[in-house]
């Protein structure tokens, strides 16, 4: 499967076309909208989220609630567009009107403005920020919602949640099951399962905001029910952990990724890292621990996939950092209209979506048929085989 996205942050709409989704998958706008709404929530967001109410229009590939096997086209309208029709017009403009189009010549440190401007020759850096904006993650979540539907048909669940904000860390065993994790994070304003740290996380965000600053954190995605052997060790670009790592770091503002105990593995002996193998009649193989986060040799082990990503603080700050006006070459102190102070809770939903996409894609590729019912049969057969291997 593959998908492309198009659309600017303050343009008329965001679009994705998803190709290769098997036929016969139950899919409704509601399945996608619930995920879009989850992405919009979360403490620390700016005023833009009060303007938008993301709703998908399915514009192709689905009939009577089931996928057809043809490309799926999804569209999400930008409600803010009506305030930007002048600045974001599609038609060419007359030279004398140029001034009212509010050129951006002051790049923000940490955002894509300056480098994107140099790369594409955009002296009006609005041409960069419109597309580098994380508004685009809306349709990545829409594509991820389709992936999640495929996974749920196969008994595979995916949940993204917040582990840390600004140094305040959740207790990692604060949930009993994936269902419990999902319910707890849905109730939490910061999408964190540990109620004891929720208020502290909100305080950290409040403080950052009060100081005109921003704050980042760590999100975790857990996937349960994936059969052993998804992905492959035979070639670098078929390793599923590698694909997931790329997907996580592709999220705006994400700077690092780890699986299981991750970077902590550098400080432990092998006997305290590798997960011992056990076998039980009827259940098959499992591991006593899951420190490697569900991967060996680029393949799933059958244990839960546990992957984390670190999000840097939002670059647009009310407290200005030094930068240079590209027209005058003079230093300036930036002033801004609006921004998120913290988007880690929203990013947990984006991370969930991109991980779901990679896992679903690997499964569809591996159990490669065009029909959902046959994929289900194939996955079941492989699960059975693995149990008694
Ligand atoms: C959900 C979400 C919301 C974001 N909101 C903002 C924002 O309001 N202001 C901002 O400057 N950056 C925001 N960012 C981060 C920027 O999009 C990101 O830093 C920028 O695209 C540059 O990419 P890089 O940080 O990966 O280098 C957000 C990121 C995510 C995932
Ligand atoms: C619009 C979204 O996030 C935006 C991501 C973003 C950025 O620079 O990444 C900047 C802000 O845009 P604006 O300047 O219009 O407020 C965020 O609101 C969204 O998540 O849907």
Task: Name a few traits of the molecule.
389 residues; alpha+beta; Chorismate synthase, AroC fold; 5-stranded antiparallel sheet; 10 helices; binds flavin mononucleotide; binds the ligand C=C(O[C@@H]1CC(C(=O)O)=C[C@@H](OP(=O)(O)O)[C@H]1O)C(=O)O
Characterization of the model:
The chain is an alpha+beta fold and 389 residues long. It has one domain (2-387): Chorismate synthase, AroC fold. Helix content is 32%, strand content 20%. Strands 8-7-9-15-10 form a 5-stranded antiparallel sheet. It has a 4-stranded antiparallel sheet with strand order 1-2-6-3, covered by helices on one side. Helix 5 crosses helix 9 and helix 8 (240-249) runs antiparallel to helix 9 (344-366). The longest helix has 23 residues, at 344-366. The chain is globular and about 75 Å long. The mean pLDDT is 95. Bound molecules: flavin mononucleotide and ligand EPS. Ligand EPS binds next to loops.
List the secondary-structure elements in sequence, H or E: EEHHEEEEHHHEEHHEHEEEEEEEEHH
Mean pLDDT, to the nearest integer, reads 95
Question: What's the shape?
Answer: globular
Number of domains: 1
End-to-end Cα distance, whole Å, is 30 Å
The CATH H-level homologous superfamily: Chorismate synthase AroC
- Top-tier CATH class: Alpha Beta
Total of DSSP H or I helical runs spanning 4+ residues: 10
CA gyration radius, whole angstroms: 22 Å
Protein name: Chorismate synthase
Family: Belongs to the chorismate synthase family.
Function: This reaction introduces a second double bond into the aromatic ring system.
Cofactor: FMNH2
């Amino acid at each position: 499967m593959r998908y492309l996205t198009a659309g600017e942050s303050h343009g008329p709409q965001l679009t994705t076309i998803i190709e290769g989704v098997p036929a016969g998958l139950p899919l409704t706008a509601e399945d996608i909208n619930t995920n879009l709404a989850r992405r919009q929530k979360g403490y620390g967001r700016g005023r833009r989220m009060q303007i938008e109410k993301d709703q998908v229009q399915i514009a192709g590939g689905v009939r009577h609630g089931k996928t057809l096997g043809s490309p799926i086209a999804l569209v999400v309208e930008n409600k803010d567009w009506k305030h930007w029709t002048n600045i974001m017009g599609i038609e060419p403009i007359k030279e004398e009107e140029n001034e009212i189009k509010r050129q951006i010549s002051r790049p923000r440190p940490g955002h894509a403005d300056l480098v994107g401007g140099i790369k594409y020759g955009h002296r009006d850096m609005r041409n960069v920020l419109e597309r580098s904006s994380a508004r685009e993650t809306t349709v990545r979540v829409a594509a991820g919602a389709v992936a999640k539907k495929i996974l749920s048909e196969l008994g595979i669940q995916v949940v993204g949640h917040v582990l840390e904000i600004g140094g305040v860390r959740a207790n990692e065993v604060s949930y009993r099951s994936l269902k419990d994790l999902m319910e707890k994070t849905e109730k939490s304003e910061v999408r964190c399962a540990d109620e004891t740290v929720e208020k502290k996380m909100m305080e950290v965000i409040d403080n950052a905001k009060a100081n005109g600053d921003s704050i980042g954190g760590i999100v975790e995605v857990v996937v349960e029910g994936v059969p052993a052997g998804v992905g492959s060790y035979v070639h670098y670009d078929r390793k599923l952990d590698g694909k997931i790592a790329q997907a996580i770091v592709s999220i705006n503002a994400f700077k690092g990724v780890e699986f299981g105990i991750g970077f902590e593995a550098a400080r432990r002996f092998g006997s305290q890292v590798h997960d011992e193998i056990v076998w039980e009649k009827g259940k098959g193989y499992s591991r006593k621990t899951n420190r490697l986060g569900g991967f060996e040799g680029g393949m799933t082990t059958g244990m839960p996939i546990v992957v984390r990503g670190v999000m840097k603080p939002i670059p647009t700050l009310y407290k200005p950092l030094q930068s240079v006006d590209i027209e005058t070459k003079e230093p300036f102190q930036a002033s801004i209209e609006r921004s998120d102070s913290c988007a880690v809770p929203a990013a947990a939903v984006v991370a969930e979506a991109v991980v779901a996409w990679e896992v679903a894609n690997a499964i569809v590729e591996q159990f490669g048929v065009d029909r959902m019912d046959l994929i289900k049969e194939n996955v079941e057969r492989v699960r059975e085989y693995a149990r008694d291997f």
